[in-house]
Amino acid sequence: MTSFAPAVRNHRRTALALVLCGGLTVALAACGTEEDPDKGTNGVAKLSAAQIDKKARAAADAASAVRLSGTLVSKGGTYELDMKLNAEGGMGSVTSKKQSFALLRVGDELYLKAPAEFWTHEGSGGESETADAAAADKLGGKYVKVPEGDPSYRQLRGFTDKKVLLDGLLALH
User: Fold this and answer.
1) How far apart are CA 23 and CA 44, in angstroms?
2) Cα dihedral 28→34→35→41 (10° resolution)
């Protein structure tokens, strides 16, 4: 004769194990939940785009100095910037169409430093090209003051103006 007692004990053990596992799962799940899933964050995920824009502008305005590095598209041109800016001026590098130059502005005084190749006008020919090469050799690698009346002054100054650059970058489109 075969005894069925061990089979009953096995069913009881299995049932007991399942009940314990289920109870443990419920208990651990209840202990692990936090009331706020954003706890420990800055809360920006809960803000609307307009609120984020307002907060970003306030932070930018409050900063005494900023560093901007990246790509900027302006007036049909693409520029790689690496600028350090404050309320009184700025300094850094700008690269456009394989040309690279440095800018330095203190107050309204703006200076540009570029390699000799920047100052040459290829294809002008003759004495003019020789004069360009001579001037380029003298100017290359040196800071040159950009007069306020120069047509490029306004655009170049914009690269060194914290407010102008941040307003352009933070504008919602």
Assistant:
1) 37
2) -170
Q: Find the domain containing 149 and state its range.
A: 47-170
Q: How many domains does the chain have?
A: 2
Counting every residue written for the chain, the total comes to 173
115/107 Cα distance (integer angstroms): 24
pLDDT in tens, 93-123: 999 888 899 999 999 999 999 999 888 866 5
DSSP3 helix / strand / coil % (the chain, rounded to 5): 45, 25, 30
pTM for the complete prediction?
Answer: 0.66
The residues, ordered by sequence, that sit 6+ positions from 133 with a Cβ below 8 Å of its Cβ are 120
Within a domain: residue 39? no
84 and 57 assigned to the same domain: yes
